[in-house]
Amino acid sequence: MGAHEAEDRAASLLERRWFAAGRAAAAMGAECDALAQVRDMADDAWRDARSRLLHLEALRDALGEELSAVDERDVGGGFESVQRSAA
Questions:
Q1: Each residue's pLDDT tens digit, 13-47
Q2: Which residue, among 45, 48, 67, has the nearest Cα to 56 in the 3D structure?
Q3: Which residues of 41-55 are buried (b: 16+ CB within 10 A; e: fewer)?
Q4: Cβ-based neighbours of 9, under 8 Å, separated by 6 or more
Q5: End-to-end Cα distance, the chain
Q6: Any idea what DSSP says for residue 87?
Q7: Euclidean distance between CA atoms 74 and 77, whole angstroms
Q8: 15-36 burial, b for 16+ CB within 10 Å, e for fewer?
Q9: pTM tops 0.85, yes or no
């Protein structure tokens, strides 16, 4: 094999490696784009879920306060009626 033929083979190998690296980079770029879309969707879903959670926690707290008020009223009213019936 002559020097020229060896240079041609080396250049051909280099060119094949360059094209392969380009294809690999394009595939990795597509994967990064897909992952970015998934991340954005997950971020949106998290924000929606967090908003619903905050709403539900506020509702729970408001209902808890209302329940406590009803319990206090029932305990107070029940105690008064027991005192009246004992008198």
A1: 999 999 999 999 999 999 999 999 999 999 999 99
A2: 48
A3: eeeeeeeeeeeeeee
A4: 1
A5: 122
A6: -
A7: 5
A8: eeeeeeeeeeeeeeeeeeeeee
A9: no
1: CB partners within 8 A, 6+ apart = 9
CA distance 23 to 27: 6
Residue 19: both structure tokens together = 């094209």
Q: Which residue has the tokens 């595939």?
A: 27
For the chain, the residue count is 87
What is the C-alpha to C-alpha distance for residues 66 and 46, in angstroms, rounded to an integer? 30
Lookup result for tokens 């392969």: 20
Classify the C-alpha dihedral 46-52-55-56 as positive or negative. Answer: negative
Tokens of 78: 């029940």
Per-residue DSSP letter, 11: H
Q: Which tens digits make up the pLDDT trace of 72-86?
A: 888 865 555 445 445
55, two tokens:
């709403």
